[in-house]
Amino acid sequence: MRTLDFAPLLRSSIGFENLNRLVDFATRGEGDAYPPYNIEKLAEDTYRISMAVAGFGREELELTVQDNVLIVIGKAEPNAEDAERQFLHRGIAKRAFERRFQLADTIKVTGAGYADGLLNIDLKREVPEHKKPRRIAIDSQAVEGQAEVLAAA
Predict the structure, then answer these.
(1) Which has the least CB within 10 A, 4, 6, 61, 89?
(2) Which distant-in-sequence residues (6+ apart) come within 8 Å of 111 by Cβ?
(3) In what helix (H) or strand (E) does residue 146 lie, and over which residues does it extend?
(4) Which pTM was predicted?
(5) In 11-125, which ranges are continuous DSSP H helix?
(6) Nearest Cα to 93, choosing from 22, 7, 21, 34?
């Protein structure tokens, strides 16, 4: 019973063709919660994703943005020291991962940093001028002129 009908919601909406794809993506859920992450709002249009990637080095992490999807990949490369060590308990999981974040059209990745086992990805909302709200003047003459043309036809 995972099928949802959004037809009533879409009757007065224009341009939401991707809504079904986004809903499927959201309801599918993530099978694996590794690595854990936070998403925080720093200011009105500024956000940060913090991922706990303990044990990974900078060279083992890869960030890519493609088609409004931020992809974070961790490649766990075998370490020569780890082969010689004998663990009685290994609670710090260092395994390969791929985490995807769906970004809105107006969200841009502005930078990333790595410190103390946390990967911080900075995001900013940049709304282009053509997408900002603008006031439309109502011209009564244009409507009356169109009515006369339609009446003559």
Answers:
(1) 89
(2) 121, 122
(3) helix 140-152
(4) 0.64
(5) 19-28, 80-84
(6) 34
Give the whole-angstrom CA distance, residue 29 versus residue 31. Answer: 6
pLDDT band at 88 (very low <50, low <70, confident <90, very high): confident
Q: What is the mean pLDDT of residues 4-28?
A: 55
**What mean pLDDT is reported for the chain?**
78
Q: Which residue has the tokens 């992450």?
A: 37
Tell me the CA distances in angstroms from 63 to 38, 56, 60, 83, 106, one per residue in order.
16, 14, 10, 28, 19
Percent of the chain with pLDDT over 90: 30
Matching residue, tokens 């036809």: 153
